[in-house]
Design goal:
Blueprint lengths: L8 H17 L4 E6 L2 E7 L8 E5 L2 E7 L1 H21 L7 H18 L6 E7 L10 E5 L5 E4 L2 E4 L3 H11 L6 H14 L19 E7 L7 E4 L1 H7 L28
Antiparallel strand pairs: 1-2, 1-8, 2-9, 3-4, 4-5, 5-6, 6-7, 9-10
Helix pairs in contact: 4-5
GO molecular function: threonine-type endopeptidase activity
Subcellular location: Cytoplasm
InterPro entries: Ntn_hydrolases_N, Proteasome_alpha, Proteasome_alpha-type, Proteasome_asu_bac, Proteasome_sua/b
Length: about 260
């Protein structure tokens, strides 16, 4: 009789953590930071159809790295949770902390109970209303349900350490939008791997490979706003713009609103 395979609980959790970290590490990075009017999202994302950054509710934004189908399911669940709570109570009762806690419970349960954990790391960001002195809130939720809050910036993705080092050297509170975008793009470029054997030059991050959005606290209701096309080009000094080779630039400059449609 063959004995059943045995693995300790500690070994199982370690294997699941390794699987999730490897999946997250294969993705390109996302930077979320606070600036003088709210929260700025800058992601390296050459796709124009699949978004890493989106709106969850009036004053709340979402960013993620990892497996797209998994964090897209989480995004949709967050929108439904926020809409239900806002309808049942009041729109101001929907907070970033509530959604971050819900995500932490969901990911923690999946990590513990299911055979395969979600290979995702997400950020929930919130800004107050224009008449509120409430500072922006940033929450990081990892694959195992761990949750933490940050005051200045969050970096997620494969090459985190060089990006964090670059941001620590250049970030300061109260940045303008232009400075915030420039610093974030420079930090993402610092995280690009060195030239591999056979490659002619190091990969550069062009405007068409960026996904940029903001939560603007000065906006009266829906704070989320995408920045694309000419509006994004205007934020990056011409001298610092790498050549655009990834894709054609979108024609629209700014797109407002939620991304709760199928991608």
């Amino acid at each position: 009789m063959t004995l059943p395979y045995y693995a300790s609980a500690e070994q199982i959790m370690r294997d699941r953590s390794e699987l999730a970290r490897k999946g997250i590490g294969r993705g390109r990075s996302v930077v979320v930071l606070t600036y003088d009017r709210g929260v700025l999202f800058v992601a390296e994302n050459p796709s124009t159809a699949l978004h890493k950054v989106s709106e969850l509710y009036d004053r709340i934004g979402f960013a993620a790295v990892g497996k797209y189908n998994e964090f897209e399911n989480l995004r949709r669940a967050g929108i439904m949770h926020a809409d239900t709570r806002g309808y049942a109570y009041d729109r101001r009762d929907v907070t970033g902390r509530t959604l971050a806690n819900a995500y932490a419970q969901t990911l923690g349960s999946i990590f513990t109970d299911q055979l395969k954990p979600y290979e995702v790391e997400i950020c929930v960001a919130e800004v107050g209303y224009p008449d509120s002195p409430k500072p922006p809130q940033l929450y990081r939720i990892t694959y195992d349900g761990s949750i933490g809050d940050e005051r200045e910036f969050i970096v997620m993705g494969g090459t985190v350490e060089p990006i964090v080092t670059a941001l620590k050297a250049s970030y300061k509170p109260g940045l303008s939008l232009e400075d915030g975008v420039a610093i974030a793009v420079s930090a993402l470029q610092a995280g690009v791997p060195d030239v591999a054997a056979g490659d002619k030059e190091k990969r550069t991050i062009g405007v068409s490979a960026l996904e940029v959005a903001v939560l603007d606290q000065t906006r009266p209701r829906r704070a989320f706003k995408r920045v694309t096309g000419a509006a994004l080009e205007a934020l990056i000094p011409k001298a610092k713009q790498p050549p655009v080779v990834d894709a054609e630039l979108p024609k629209t400059d700014v797109v407002d609103g939620s991304d709760d449609t199928a991608k």
